[in-house]
Amino acid sequence: xxxxxxxxxxxxxxxxxxxxxxxxxxxxxxxxxxxxxxxxxxxxxxxxxxxxxxxxxxxxxxxxxxxxxxxxxxxxxxxxxxxxxxxxxxxxxxxxxxxxxxxxxxxxxxxxxxxxxxxxxxxxxxxxxxxxxxxxxxxxxxxxxxxxxxxxxxxxxxxxxxxxxxxxxxxxxxxxxxxxxxxxxxxxxxxxxxxxxxxxxxxxxxxxxxxxxxxxxxxxxxxxxxxxxxxxxxxxxxxxxxxxxxxxxxxxxxxxxx
Length: 258
Ligand code: PEP
Prior knowledge:
45% of the residues lie in helices and 15% in strands.
């Protein structure tokens, strides 16, 4: 972490908790976050739980994000949700380009860039995900993949460089596998992302938070978050229970005080 950037810990609940469990978990996280004044905390429930979780989080320091958005403002796009609808449900953040969307739903680099534009247009802060697959890493293409994915969205980020946003480096092989990147591998990728950002805008590079995602737990959070270019975490599995999420929040808070 770097003292110029407040750590951001975001929980991606994926396709879990559509009803009362979502409210209970959100309430628990809000309570646990009350004293964590140095850390920004965001939860990203499924669409159906957004409005109820927004009500639960009202007046707390926990932000609300969605997991996806459609680029168009309205129209004949059955099953999709527009950015203004997310704002109406109480969101201030949205994840775009998650590897599960790229892998299973065909989200291309260009589509991710369009979603990012739509987020900014509605004053939603995007969390733009990038990261290589295991095969791409083994072929030595990690940095090339990150560069391709980031370059596709970079003009949009630069055009909105004063607005809230984050980038998440999520190596696909580390997501949900229990096999997190080492701190050294994460720092290498994050420093590379920072360099790419700086080549487009020094201001943007200095202020954008680059989160690490992929099997973050209470046991490895401190080491990962201590890397100079790691500004927080996007957490999947370990964000689904308070017992697992709270130690990650605690690690971020402790590092800001050390
Ligand atoms: C994710 O899906 O964004 C993620 C990081 O998942 P996990 O923490 O379970 O690896």
